[in-house]
Amino acid sequence: MPKIQLTPAQRREKRADAHHLSPVVIVGNDGLTPAVQKEVDAALNAHGLIKVRIVSDDRNGRELIYHTLVEALGAAPVQHIGKLVVLWRPPVEKEKSVDDDRLPGPRDVKILKHSTRGGQRPEVRVLRVLGNQRLTSGGQIKRAKPKKKSIKKRQAD
After folding, report:
1. pTM to 2 decimal places
2. DSSP structure string for 90-135
3. Following CA atoms 62, 67, 72, 78 in sequence, which dihedral angle do they give, to the nearest 10 degrees?
4. Could you read off the pLDDT of 18-49 as tens digits, one per residue?
C-alpha cells in the first residue's frame, strides 16, 4: 500500500491536472535504474505532479516499475494507462530565512517625462532606487522618511 492515500475525487482532480503534461522522465529498456529513480525523485520535488513514460512492452514489468516507484519514493499513484504513469507527491515546504536587518534591494524605475509641445516622444529615464530611498512625484530620489505614528498610538505605547 502506498503511504499517500488519495480519495477518488482527489485522484480525478490530479488526473485532470496531469492531462496536459508531457512525460518528464522516460524509463528506457534498461528498466528502473538508480539513476532513473533519482531523476523521478528530483522531478517530484520540483513539480509535485509528473508523468513518466515506461518504454517496455512487458505489461507486468510496467506494473512492477509503477508500484516500485510509488513505494520507493513515497508518492501517490494517480493513473497508469498503457505506457504512461502519473505520480503525485505533495511539495516540500522550503524554509525561508528571515533576516530582520535586511533592507529592500535596489529596483529600477522608469520615469516618463512628457514634453510640453505635443507630438514629441516622452523622455524616458531609468533610475535606480535603493531600499532606503523613495521616488517623489516630480521624479527625484529622496531618502525615505520614517513612518510617523499617530499621537493616539504613541500614548498607548
Report:
1. 0.60
2. PPPPPPPPP-TTPPPPPEEEEEEE--SSTTSPPEEEEEEE-TTEEE
3. 100
4. 999 999 999 998 889 999 999 999 999 999 99
**CA–CA distance, 38 with 47 (Å, rounded to integer):** 14
Rounded-to-integer distance, Cα 52 and Cα 23, Å:
5
Q: Where are the beta strands (DSSP E) in the chain?
A: 23-27, 49-54, 76-81, 84-88, 107-113, 123-129, 133-135, 141-143
Residues 6+ apart with CB under 8 A from 129: 106, 107, 108, 109, 135, 141
> What letter would DSSP give residue 137?
T
Summarised one tens digit per residue, pLDDT across range 43-56 is 999 999 999 999 99
What's the CA gap between 70 and 118, in Å, rounded? 67
Q: Residue 152 carries which side chain, given as an amino acid letter?
A: K
Cell of 144: 525615505
- Model pLDDT for residues 64-96, shown as the tens digit of each residue: 999 999 999 999 999 999 999 999 999 888 777
Instruction: Please tell me the distance from the alpha carbon of residue 104 to that of residue 84, in angstroms, as a whole number.
Output: 46
Whole-angstrom distance, CA of residue 143 vs CA of residue 25: 52
